[in-house]
Amino acid sequence: MLCAGLALALCALQLVPAALAGPQPQLLVERSGARRLSKVGGFAWENCGDKSDPVVVQSLSVAPDPISIPGSLRVSAAVKSGKTMSSPLKAALVVEKALGDLWIQLPCIDQLGSCTYNDVCSILDELIPPGTPCPEPLLTYGIPCHCPFKAGSYSLPASDFDVPDVELPSWMTNGNYRVRVVVSNGGEELSCVKLAFSLHSH
């Protein structure tokens, strides 16, 4: 679930670089006016599910702040799952941008923004073909990268990642963002996490 919940959410957004250290599907379409992401700062997170949610993020740390892109990044995380998670896993994202005192929900464009991913397991299979070893540092720490995810506790000690260039579409401007990620299976909510961060591009 550490891979499914965090890596999927962050990688799908391609905004917070914690999951950008490996191969990934091309979710962004190049277009005129696109800009290069230069910094991500002000990162914060919290669980947003109720006490009945079986999957809870216990800790998540991303450093430095701000993160320079391209550059290096150190991530640590811990997730506790009280239930085996199997296909199909659904992830629903709501992405909002601050506009003065208001928060404006962004649409889903080219698989970026407030999108719903109906089959997280298939996305993970595209990122890491079945039958191939999980990438480091997941392999070293026994963190699975394919469904099903067995119940238990998963921990990623502080690990360093190289962050490549990230291209943003023209409509994703500098500013403060917040994201709500809900992972579910068959209509049952499994986990809810809120992320907040700021983007700076050039």
From TrEMBL:
Gene Ontology CC terms: cytoplasmic side of plasma membrane; cytosol
Keywords assigned by UniProt, alphabetized: Signal
Molecular-function annotations in GO: beta-N-acetylhexosaminidase activity; enzyme activator activity; lipid transporter activity
A biological process from GO: ganglioside catabolic process
Entry keyword Signal: yes
Signal peptide residue numbers: 1-21
Start and end residues of each MD-2-related lipid-recognition domain: 45-197
Source species, domain of life: Eukaryota
One Pfam family matching this protein: E1_DerP2_DerF2
SMART domains: ML (SM00737)
UniProt KW Signal keyword: yes
Descriptive protein name: Ganglioside GM2 activator
Source species of the chain: Taeniopygia guttata
